[in-house]
């Protein structure tokens, strides 16, 4: 930095302050730390005592200043937001209004702190109307949070401009942190607290007051879990819930509530009446519709929204034979009908230090705050009583010496010093006497003063006894908790909405149930083009191919199947049926889907079945039996199954279903032998199936001996049952087949 900039010449303007040389890293870290602390302390984390962030606390305080009590009229939200922004919260009006709206939404807050009039949004995710159209006032819950704030119950601090005062924390006669929950993301930390039932929280707090050594499991007898405003079913195991509340970290699985509704003629539908917390209904329906379009919910036929002010989502099954539990299990796994709400009770403690607390610590901190509030309110009341008793004592002196007091006031030039000297009054008493009205000198007024004096003295003695005994103070807090539980823990507002303790039956769902099954026909052309057409086409269906191409083979399959291919190189390949091109076009060359050399061709294709077996063989008549699992390969390069000698090829791969093998050579010799003479292998050359002097293997087939050997002649199928002439052992030469056997030496099936 140039010297004339670092050290301005004399007489030059200062430029706004002192300039210092600082390392960039130090300056950045210092400023980022200040920003992080500001985010943590004044924006994102709630206070454990009242459960509020600064913006919410300022909103309630501003509404209290505007006298927007539950019994008062409502005021425009724009007026409330303007007061908050101008006096207490130096941020944008939109963020303040969004915070106000959330406090008024009964589907977002378990116990709304603001009563709104107008459009405050809905569970579909629609936004609230502009602040100039909506009105608001405080609820009784908010009143409970503010109760005693005028009695010096909490500290105040100057606002950002120093012109006003705002509370550091609210008295909080309501367990707001746990009752309404909180969410926030700060720098390097976050908080996530679900809503709970206020009546249950008060019961747990009473347990903690009566038994300070109570453990978290003792408290969980009163608080079985969260209580979300939108209801639902909590399906988290009890041990997991206990651990989460003990450590302050964990999570809760929440499911939608549903029931089976019977229709006419044995039909039925599912009706969802409660959805998980913080799930927008419209987005949930869009998600389900998208998955249906992608064929990932094969059991679901349709979804429609019949909601009014009550949730009613209707789910129609694809068929009445579908099990409702299985259908819902597929939806729970794939959609937001089941969600997980994380628990991270990271809050600011009474010393404004962020830390993670368990359930017991949070309730203990709230109770300690209520104890501090009780002491401060009692001290404030005792001071007020003392001031009033001092004045009443002065009044009583006046009534005992009324004539003398009148004379002093009437004839003395300085009546105050004279009154003090004559009757030993204090300055406050003397001022009160001099400010009395003449009508107060009547006899009836004296009796009222004596009654008030006696009443205040009795109250003073009681409060002084309260201050001297901690046991009495905790007894008073017990009474407050009982009153809070009676007020907010009963009736429609206090009834538990989220169901807990349900043991869910084990529902087994095949992963294939998440993909829609559709019948298709896979067609392979002679030149190696493959395609799939919708439906199981009959065998006589004519297929169109490119000029010079023709049908090689076809197979019926489902869209969820795996298609196995066996090539002349002895390798097996696997394709997913839904990856095969659909439609009535020419399809796609198999060589683009699997790696084949120029001289290699697909011998056969078939639908993979887990327990199936296949006879594989080369053109020189060697082969073995392979399991279907050994023919599976997820790699594009395939899997070598049949090892082929130089100059030879894999000739066939046919199902090994039966007890007898029929092989026919190019020399037109037929041989039958038992299947158990062929070994079962995973890979290799195999054994000789039939011996040849000239040529090689033409075709093979596995069949059941008692059913006879069949082959196709044109449109007819011929069956030969007298098979004795051709029976022998493996590796025999065989004999000429019976009359009528196809001239191409193939069984044709």
From TrEMBL:
It catalyses: ATP-dependent breakage, passage and rejoining of double-stranded DNA. CDD domains: TOP4c (cd00187). The record marks 53, 89, 91 as: Interaction with DNA. The active site is at residue 133. Keywords: Cell membrane, DNA-binding, Isomerase, Membrane, Topoisomerase. Residues 45-508 form the Topo IIA-type catalytic domain. Gene3D superfamilies: 3.30.1360.40, DNA gyrase/topoisomerase IV, subunit A, C-terminal, Topoisomerase II, domain 5, Topoisomerase, domain 3. The record marks 132 as: Transition state stabilizer. InterPro entries: GyrA/parC_rep (IPR006691), Gyrase/topoIV_suA_C (IPR035516), Topo_IIA-like_dom_sf (IPR013760), Topo_IIA_A/C_ab (IPR013758), Topo_IIA_A_a_sf (IPR013757), Topo_IIA_dom_A (IPR002205), TopoIV_A_Gneg (IPR005742), Type_II_DNA_Topoisomerases (IPR050220). Residues 1-23, 729-749 are annotated as: Disordered. Pfam families: DNA_gyraseA_C, DNA_topoisoIV. It is an enzyme of class 5 (isomerase). It is found in: Cell membrane. PROSITE patterns: TOPO_IIA. Its EC number is 5.6.2.2. It is a peripheral membrane protein. Belongs to the type II topoisomerase GyrA/ParC subunit family. ParC type 1 subfamily. Heterotetramer composed of ParC and ParE. This is DNA topoisomerase 4 subunit A.
């Amino acid at each position: 930095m140039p010297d004339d900039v670092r050290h301005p010449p004399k007489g030059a303007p200062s430029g706004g302050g002192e300039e210092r040389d600082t390392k960039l890293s130090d300056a950045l870290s210092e400023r980022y730390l200040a920003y992080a602390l500001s985010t943590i302390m004044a924006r994102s984390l709630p206070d454990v005592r009242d459960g509020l962030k600064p913006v919410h606390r300022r909103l309630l305080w501003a509404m209290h200043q505007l006298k927007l009590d539950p019994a008062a009229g409502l005021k425009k939200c724009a007026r409330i937001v303007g007061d908050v922004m101008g006096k207490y919260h130096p941020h944008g009006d939109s963020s303040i209004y969004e915070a106000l709206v959330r406090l008024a939404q009964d589907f977002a807050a378990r116990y709304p702190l603001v009563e709104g009039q107008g459009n405050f949004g809905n569970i579909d995710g629609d936004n609230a109307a502009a602040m100039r159209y909506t009105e608001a006032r405080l609820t009784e819950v908010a009143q409970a949070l503010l109760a005693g704030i005028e009695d010096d119950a909490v500290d105040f601090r100057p606002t950002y401009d120093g012109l006003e005062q705002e509370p550091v924390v609210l008295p909080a006669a309501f367990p707001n942190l746990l009752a309404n929950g909180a969410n926030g993301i700060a720098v390097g930390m976050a908080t996530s607290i679900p809503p709970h039932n206020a009546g249950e929280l008060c019961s747990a707090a009473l347990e903690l007051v009566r038994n300070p050594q109570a453990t978290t499991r003792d408290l969980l007898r009163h608080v079985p879990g969260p209580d979300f405003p939108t209801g639902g079913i909590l399906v988290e195991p009890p041990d997991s819930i206990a651990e989460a509340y003990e450590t302050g970290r964990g999570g809760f699985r929440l499911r939608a509530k549903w029931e089976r509704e019977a229709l006419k003629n044995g039909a039925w539908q599912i009706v969802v009446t409660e959805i998980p917390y913080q799930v927008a209904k419209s987005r949930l329906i869009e998600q389900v519709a998208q998955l249906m379009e992608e064929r990932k919910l094969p059991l679901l036929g349709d979804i429609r929204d019949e909601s009014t002010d009550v949730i009613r989502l209707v789910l129609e099954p694809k068929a009445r034979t579908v099990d409702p539990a299985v259908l819902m299990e597929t939806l729970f796994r794939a959609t937001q009908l089941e969600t997980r709400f994380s628990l991270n009770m990271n809050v600011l403690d009474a010393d404004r230090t962020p830390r993670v607390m368990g359930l017991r610590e949070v309730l203990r901190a709230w109770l300690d705050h209520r104890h501090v509030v009780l002491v401060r309110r009692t001290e404030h009341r005792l001071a007020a009583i003392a001031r009033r008793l001092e004045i009443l004592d002065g009044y009583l002196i006046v009534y005992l010496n009324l004539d003398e007091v009148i004379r002093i006031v009437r004839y003395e030039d300085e009546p105050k010093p004279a009154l003090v000297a004559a009757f030993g009054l204090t300055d406050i008493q003397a001022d009160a006497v001099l400010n009395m009205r003449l009508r107060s000198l009547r006899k009836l007024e004296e009796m009222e003063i004596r009654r008030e004096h006696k009443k205040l003295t009795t109250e003073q003695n009681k409060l002084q006894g309260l201050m001297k005994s901690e046991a009495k103070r905790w007894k008073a807090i017990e009474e407050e908790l009982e009153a809070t539980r009676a007020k907010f823990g009963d009736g429609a507002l206090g009834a538990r909405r989220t169901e807990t303790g349900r043991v869910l039956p084990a529902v087994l769902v095949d992963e294939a149930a998440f993909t829609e099954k559709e019948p298709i026909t896979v067609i392979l052309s002679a030149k190696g083009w493959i395609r799939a057409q919708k439906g199981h086409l009959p065998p006589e269906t004519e297929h169109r191919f490119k000029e010079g191409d023709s049908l090689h083979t076809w197979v019926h399959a489902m869209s969820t199947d795996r298609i196995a291919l066996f090539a002349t190189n002895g390798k097996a390949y696997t394709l997913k049926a839904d990856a095969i091109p659909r439609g009535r076009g020419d399809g796609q060359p198999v060589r683009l889907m699997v790696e084949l050399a120029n001289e290699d061709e697909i011998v056969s294709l078939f639908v993979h079945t887990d327990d199936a077996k296949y006879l594989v063989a080369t053109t020189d008549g060697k082969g073995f039996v392979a399991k279907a699992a050994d023919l599976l390969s997820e790699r594009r390069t395939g899997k070598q199954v049949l090892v082929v000698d130089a100059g030879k090829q894999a000739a066939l791969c046919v199902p090994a279903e039966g007890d007898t093998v029929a092989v026919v050579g190019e020399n037109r010799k037929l041989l039958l032998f038992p299947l158990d003479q062929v070994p079962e292998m995973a890979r290799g050359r195999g054994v000789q199936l039939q011996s040849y002097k000239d040529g090689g293997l033409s075709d093979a087939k596995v069949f059941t001996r008692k059913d006879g050997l069949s082959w196709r002649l044109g449109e007819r199928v011929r069956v030969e049952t007298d098979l004795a002439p051709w029976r022998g052992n493996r590796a025999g030469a065989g004999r000429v087949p019976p009359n009528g056997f196809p001239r191409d030496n193939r069984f044709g099936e």
